[in-house]
Structures
1.
Amino acid sequence: MDMITMEQKWRKRWEETNLYSFDRTRTDKKLYCLEMFSYPSAAKLHAGHWYNYGPTDSWARFKRMQGYNVFHPMGFDAFGLPAENFAIKTGIHPKDSTLQNIATMEGQLRNIGASFDWEYELVTCLPEYYKWTQWMFVQMYKHGLAERREAPVNWCPSCNTVLANEQVMGDGTCERCHTIVERRNLTQWFFKITKYADELLADLDKLDWPEKTKQMQRNWIGKSVGSEVVFKIEGCDEPMRVFTTRADTLFGVTYAVLAPEHPLVDIITTEECREAVEEYKVMASRASEIDRLSTTREKTGTFTGAYAINPVNGRKVPIYIADYVLASYGTGAVMAVPAHDERDFAFATKYNLPIERVIAGNEGVEDELPFCSHDGHLVNSQQFDGMGVDEGREAITAWLKEKEEGDFKVNFRLRDWLVSRQRYWGAPIPIVYCDKCGTVPVPEEQLPVELPYDVDFTPDGQSPLKKHAGFMNCKCPVCGGDATRDPDTLDTFVCSSWYFLRYPDNKNAEKPFDTEWINQILPVDKYVGGAEHACMHLLYARFFVKALRDMGYVNFDEPFKSLVHQGIILGPDGYRMSKSRGNVVSPDEFVEKYGSDVFRMYLMFCFSYVEGGPWNTDGILAINRFLERVERFVVSSLEMKGEGVYEKAEKELDAVRHYTIAQVTADTDKFQFNTAIARIMELFNALYKYTANNDNINGKLVQDIVRDSVLILAPFVPHMAEELWEMLGNEYSVFNQAWPVHDPAKLVRDESEIAVQVNGKVRARVVVRTDAESDEVQQIVLADEKVAAAIDGKNVVKFVYIKGRLANIVVK
RNA sequence: GCGGGCGUGGCGGAAUGGCAGACGCGCUGGAUUUAGGUUCCAGUGUCCAAGUGACGUAAGAGUUCAAGUCUCUUCGUCCGCACCA
């Protein structure tokens, strides 16, 4: 079979007959199958794209054959940094390069033979899409979920530009010029995802997602139950608020620490300390967050000269600044209890600060300082002495609450989502600033705020759009007076946080989507994409859906009911494919030589889907060989004669057929494609075995099984299955056929061979009736001479029987 | 550093707590073929005294009649860490 010509023939036929067109009338059995859309940064599909889209497409085809009305769209996540950087390097405009890349990739996606319905395609960088991304921003703003405030960015003082974290090297320098990167505050927009922290955490339990992904989101959200305590500062009207999970240790506070970026720092620092504090702030602005949170890194800090008053005992404690305290977590201030916290202990030891025990270990508990265990009770804590750790925490917080110097507080690690980007290639933020009216959202009828084409986006310290007078200067939508636009663009994660809502209604010019329609098609039933999105894209999308639900635009709580992560295809050397390593394998040459079916099945057979693994070209030859073996058998089966014989051999062959159907169905459903294909290989091995050296075959039975085998092969090798299906004399299309269902009765065996263990070691095998009970099996087994020899006259103390599989005799 | 994975033959990988290594690659042997990067069949974890044998799932301990699987410790490795998408 010439795979290449054959595949082209069927792709043409599929397109002409609109085989994959979604039926909008049958929403009762709808199934929304979605792969994460691709980013057109390179013109060609790489192995990773193939690995995401090929197997998932097979799953979608399998579901279609099971009778589901499958909605399977594809599109492009087209805004983003790489196109802009490419433009800075080459002078090619991001819009031109992106649209060119999309055209090429779309052609390739059609050629992998996937069942996408291209009628529903979307491209996020086109005005008809980003109009609604901007609309989303306006809704967030109107519902109090978008807020403008100061936030730090990475700043390269030499390039005079904002850098993405990706552009900052491991040593904290700029990737372009190797200058040390600093942090600078800019006023930027945030989405208040933290408002949904509790629900985002709780609803994880409802999702059919990989447990590890849910765990990662739980940790990312980082709920922590504790107390907020108010410390007055000497000579300052504004108090210092600290968050702590250990209010029980309040009597042991010997100093306090502010993050170097904390707004109080400038107010409270005394003249003598100012120089050291300023110096320290500069140093801290150069350390990365990962470094700052490292528990092994040496703690540093400096005294501000100011003192705080501990509300539980009125004691004066010095206030330091230190970079192990982050402005972005909690209140940006901590109380330090060196006796009962590792980090505080290290810091106090280094700077000679007092260390005072307030928790003693319970009976028999080793309590050398720092003693951080909860297995203790309060000491040196006045009226609270003797209380347990948890009891003390509650009692002290309740007491502070009464005095209005503290309260119970739940804190999250999750931070609000910074969506402003000082870049060109993104959706402009639809906000206008007017001297008279202030911050004004652009009204819906004026959307989209179009991204101008002729913009100078070479880095020079400003957002590129700020330099475009035609874009920046506008009229205020409220008063009509002169006003200016927000010069920033939206984080591309905003575009990808709602695209799955747009697909089913992608041509709607009136609204982002029709609520009633979307409520029928959503949520996405199966979402497939990389695990690297666990904490960001997947969390942002969940937040969007919850926010839109509360605004009344959708009636469901979660975007993705069921989630699967594909693994990563590594280079042949076992390392991640990268140009610099020179281990990149391109799918193209293999697809051109063997066809897309062979390539797809190779990806599905040679790896565990969720694990991935190193590339191995031999596997492609193996699949090619297997498919040739399939074709030879199907062709030869056409000539087979004979029917009516149904003896032991036929019964066995038929059992293999039904076992295969059962296993392939179950495994494919769970994305365990490699084992599903292994079972199909076994079926063909059994078919070959049955027909070899057998002059009295049941040709009718064989042909019947071949028919089923083509059906169960269809999702994995769609083009070839169409060809074989036609060859067998059937009507187009194999994908309009019902998926075979196995007959459990054909699987039942009267007798089973079981393994017999003596003290856990296999000593014999015996054949028993499959439905025999434990007592009966025990008698048969003990009568076996090998077993008797192994028991060797010892006493049987226990007998365990696992039906049809194994018996274990415990002797002493 | 923190968080989350993973670790099984020469290789890719299988194993609801129940006979470790399915299926495939590679290798060995046989048959077919003028020929083969063909096809078909058989064998293939390690060790030895070759068996109704011993050992064997990164290392060490534990729970269990039974552990690759559950628990703890250690080592190695990969991914994410909020401006790559």
2.
Amino acid sequence: MIKTAEYDFKAIEAHWQAFWAEHKTFHAEIDESKKKYWILDMFPYPSGAGLHVGHIEGYTATDILGRYKKAQGFNVLHPMGWDAFGLPAEQHAIATGLHPSINTKKNIDNFRQQMHRIGLGIDWEREINTTDPEYFRWTQWIFLQLFKHGLAYVDQKPVWWCPQLGTVLANEEVVDGKSERGNYPVERKPLRQWVLKITAYGDKLLKGIDSLDWPEATKRQQKQWIGRSEGGLVSFEVKPDITLEVFTTRPDTIFGVSFIAIAPEHGLIDSIVSVEQKHLVEDYRKQVAAKSDLERTDLAKNKTGVFTGSYAVHPFTGERIPIWISDYVLMHHGTGAVMGVPAHDERDFEFAQTYHLPIKQVITLSSNETLPAVGEGVLVNSGKFSGLATLDARKAILSELEHLKVGKTTVQYKLHDWLFSRQRYWGEPFPIVWVEEKDYQYLLACDHSPFKEFLPKTPIAYTENGKSLFAVPLTSKHLPLTLPEVSSYKPTMGSTTPLQNADSSWLNVKMNCSTGEILPADGFVEEGWIAGVRETNTMPQWAGSCWYYLRYLSPHFSNNFVDDKALHYWETPDMYIGGAEHAVLHLLYARFWHQFLFDLGLLPTSEPFKKLFHPGIILGPDGNKMSKSLGNVINPNSVIDEYGADALRLYEMFLGPLEASKPWSLQNVEGVYRFLKKVWREFVDLEGEIAKKMLGSCDSAEFQRLLHETILKVTEAIENLRFNTAISQLMICLNGIQKEPQISKNSAKVFLQLLAPFAPHIAEELWERLGEKASITEAAWPNFDASKCVRSQLKVVVQVNGKVRDEIYVSANAEPSEIIAAAKKASKVVAYLSKGTLVKEIYVPKKLVNFVVIL
RNA sequence: GCUUGAGUGGUGAAAUUGGCAAACACGCUAGACUUAGGAUCUAGUGCCGAAAGGUUUAAGGGUUCGAGUCCCUUCUCAAGCACCA
């Protein structure tokens, strides 16, 4: 207790924050006697800027929910951790030469301290950190499981390379073909990359979405991202030994094909282009290659293309169909070739118009429709398929094509495999060593080698300078594979990853196939040992966040990534709150890993996040997104200093609906601060003692009704995450308290309990001053008693022709006929009734009477 | 361009299944208490009108006894997707 008559929020808040920490108030253990409630926040990246107002919005929301559920008797788990790998720490390291872990630790300490200062009820015993080797050993372990099961492979993929900066950049760091930092040109450079086969889970990821209690927009976004489309592959013969395969979702339009278009990168171009067209084709391909992705995908531009000089044969009509090259066809979708049906596809239509290609209508048009007609209809000019409805025709034509062995029903996904490696220092090292083929063969021949623990059925290999290298996975005993010290965190011009700057004793190793021992290579490899080079890419930041929620369940468990006992009790989060910007990144990746671990039998559920909620973005006071360049970033620390943490929490929750994006406006902090001061004044007298007013033995009936209405409304509002309306109801209740000469101590307690999730510090303080020994967090949530809310007198509104004209007060148990009779006598209504003819009476129980009168 | 949301006072916003629009706050106006007020309290505050009253949820239309809420058209804003064959 703080001995003061003033609302000294600084002293009060510091006191109760220390109390909660000391008593481990929010520490959760498995307790089979209680129902569990696991609340998950998207854990933050601990940036140097510290906690921003958006973090506080989400974390306050989960804190309110957690404190409320605890009062409801749930065993609440509300953990927190740090998604601490990432680029800013690395850039800081490059600039200062200090190891990124130093700055990371500093930032984490700051974040933790700030969370402490806003009074979050977090179980700090379970804090995790993705950069902690004891954490990322399991990230590496899960990667090895993926590797073992054939879901991790290597591929040559183009990445953004900036010669001036000497580094590879992420897509987000490239703006209009220039580096975001320094504005230097960047180029596409193919590099060997690790890729996770997320497409193998395309169907499962898609199907699982329907079972999720997520915002519809987010579900839609994931579905769209996965982009499943059913259709068929159709082979067109070009030459006796060459066929061109196209993918189409509209096989029913096949009689309308008037050209075939293939992507400029298509592999068959060289073998089909005619001698006369060769020059034009080459020029076109060069032109396209020089275009940026932005220019190529600009929808506003006209379609361009060039004829190859070759023709394909229509599988049904035998017609010769010209083959064109055009950059509106994308190599990475389907087969990189499409059948052009101008009459029934907008893009093909545009292309055909530009190059004067025939437009053959093969589907009837609905009235007032013009070409291109992309809707459904009935087939015409389609040989024996004419007369079929398009939906039926799709099946019929595909099965005929299959019968002719020139087609196949198939499913395409927009989803691509996940590029999983980064040319960075500050990430999880891959637990992989590359060896030559003969050494790999040697390992395979070695019985019971520990290195076979994660060895895949099909070897993962790539070829460099004519030499094939094979991936050998480390064993679980070698984990964690920690980051080596490097002389520089910056990649040199010659190499592409900072880890290539590591000492040779880390980079070059020899492995004992039978014992599993790994030592620095010394140039001399004895019998039983094989030599190799470590993988020098690191994993992307998403890796650690793919499974972090599971680690909270048993953060110090060393035998497995999660303790089955804890998993059995806590299962998956009951509520996940975090930003919508992760709709298709983190939320998709994490589902992939979770489903994979589920398929291995390691998890009891197939989906990680049953219920998801996105808080809206808090904008700057000018209505723009907060950003350094606009200078509209709000520092929450100054608000805490001036008004206190309770005021900041209330303010952010009172700002508007949680899911809405809303501008910050400091003026309104005054409103909630006044509310808190008013609470204080009602409870504490001028001498600093508890106000006599709050210690009565009974309440007025009117106040009892208000109090129970408040219990109901606050409870429902919290359940529905509508904290702004909960707070307004608390304000109404306080205004009611203010008008009462005295209220019962019990009611005073109830009010504090309802306030406690929102403004926990002041609630604890006043609770203690009321004479309570235990923390308010131990008190059971107040019960709503509907009988306290019944009124003996009801107000009924009287309308004439839908307009309110009067109101009457009637006994709560009056009959409808009595009420209607009373309504007819209402002074303002009489005039209308006498002027016209009453044709209808409507009575809405306990609410209103409406008379329909013809005047 | 497509998809999905959303548009309510000077401001942030409330409003069960269609049933008193603007709760709760901010701001503003007047008053009280004060040496003082950026403290506190009281009253008022959508718009027009002196009042009676009329009128009001982006605009227009419709359904209904009754529409912020349902349907149609248009406009504006936001988010996502963006040649995915």
